[in-house]
């Protein structure tokens, strides 16, 4: 180029003409011509090579091209388990038998220094894009997004998912399971669908949208359509979402290989297990009865010894002590121990069932003859085990996290219901800590490996010939470049007309053949809700910030600058047990400075430790923003986040009905389900408003039955105000006459009533809010319309009546 510039000056006015002719030829012979195949997606359409005459008789057609994957490109299966710690699955020393992970590990490699982000949405965004979670706007879960670039919840088009790259390179692609990366305000029938799987490179999606799902009554989507989970005949009462997702994956494999056996597939299989609620058929729970009576302190010691024996932790590793904030198992009462043991039995059963379902998927790949040429990544956890189950566990985790104290006596009385459709159970913090053996802390805590070090198995029999353990330090962003190298597909520079951000991960393929190869990831930052960490050349600086992960209220009262940093030499300290900050202050300062460099580069700033405050829907865009009156019609089924925002405010629901001569029961309006929500329904001709938050719902029932013919039923909800989750007074009116009133002491404080249930008119789909009925309990009369009005109800003469007057 220097030579060309020099000639340009010498040629004077003739220069521009010659440059216009010569420069394109220069680039075709150099950089442009050398650009690798598929560096720009979609690839340029090939020139027509046939002949075109006046008619087809003197013409010659070309061949219509079909995009094919590179020769030898493997099938790819990425399996992501939810909320699973390092010390739970038997392959890595846990007590829960997981024979299918064991058998995969025997054919491949076990990675023991692999890391996630400490929370689900961020890990999943990083996994699918190959970029750090803040780089793709997912510094926290989508329901807590704010209008800062690193926290928006909007994965940019400049960071195309690996699915889109593979699809445009000749792969069939499918996403089956949990999708926690659709912005909360884009989950309704109105979309937009840009960040749904169908427009992110997946030919097929079957699963749920959000952080968790009721395994017995999940909110399922097939592509963009809400559907019901189909329960095979004869499996009623023992068929859950875990079964359905495996069935769908197996079916997809059979169909895809029946049609195109030589076309590789990419399947992202994310079952949502073992995230709470820990729902699993009773037959699985019974297998673990009495197996965890030793408690979490002894479990840690037993698991630690198994890990040393298996070699998944090196000799000299220390077992980190129990934090003072977690109670000793022996300090629990007899009832608390009974509850804790049963909750752990349910979790173990859930884990074992999940391993079994993944085994069915592997069996299907083997049956179609493609197991040897399938590159499998089986990641045990998108973060460590969840510490959100409170110190003593929960029959209803959402109520417990909302501050509702559950009486152990109540849970003991309902022990047999744990894991079943009436429960929404989560195990105690101590069991989560035990599942993360040998590390400190757990989910949400990005500063310590209990939250971020998740084991992984990689198998690919046609290519990986070695077996055993790999100890190089790697991160979830390294999966995408590994996939692309394995498939011989270059990292794209442009996708669908958008210039791409550089992929920030590094390939792990170098480790497939060399157990002792030097790791290629030398620096990696960690940050979540103010918890911070930085890895650099074998050293790790960490700071756990204030709030405990099971305290789901407001942010920490401790300032971010007041935190105390720790320092660990990971070359000699696998479990992050010996804090060397006092011995090496200069090295700690160096790492702290490195953190700020990474934080600035990858959109981590500004640091934000708020929790409950960020659940406020007003912080995010909304298709219903500014509206105060909503009119709904019979059959409407709307995602919770797109329905009228009735939480933490006064509101009125007015239903215009036509009751047939013999009466009509059923649901008028319902949102949420067994874990929490409300139902406005008719039972035995009496209007009922029921609010569920905690083990015992609050019910307000009309003193009089409805007459046949037209009726207008109104529920007025007067919120106390003064913050989130406060109480309220509920009044019922029939044709402007007050017929009942009642009192709620507390309400659901988050911006949603549940994780995956919907706002329904004329039915209660999913799990039922009320014990009065079974879902869907469709209304037997006619609903002309339902109007939801936000704000204080307009006073009427009837409002002056007291409940005593009515009675």
From TrEMBL:
<dbReference type="Pfam" id="PF00884">
    <property type="entry name" value="Sulfatase"/>
</dbReference>
<protein>
    <submittedName>
        <fullName>Arylsulfatase</fullName>
        <ecNumber>3.1.6.1</ecNumber>
    </submittedName>
</protein>
<dbReference type="InterPro" id="IPR017850">
    <property type="entry name" value="Alkaline_phosphatase_core_sf"/>
</dbReference>
<keyword id="KW-0106">Calcium</keyword>
<dbReference type="InterPro" id="IPR050738">
    <property type="entry name" value="Sulfatase"/>
</dbReference>
<comment type="similarity">
    <text>Belongs to the sulfatase family.</text>
</comment>
<dbReference type="InterPro" id="IPR024607">
    <property type="entry name" value="Sulfatase_CS"/>
</dbReference>
<feature type="domain" description="Sulfatase N-terminal">
    <location>
        <begin position="74"/>
        <end position="488"/>
    </location>
</feature>
<dbReference type="GO" id="GO:0004065">
    <property type="term" value="F:arylsulfatase activity"/>
</dbReference>
<dbReference type="InterPro" id="IPR000917">
    <property type="entry name" value="Sulfatase_N"/>
</dbReference>
<dbReference type="GO" id="GO:0046872">
    <property type="term" value="F:metal ion binding"/>
</dbReference>
<keyword id="KW-0378">Hydrolase</keyword>
<keyword id="KW-0479">Metal-binding</keyword>
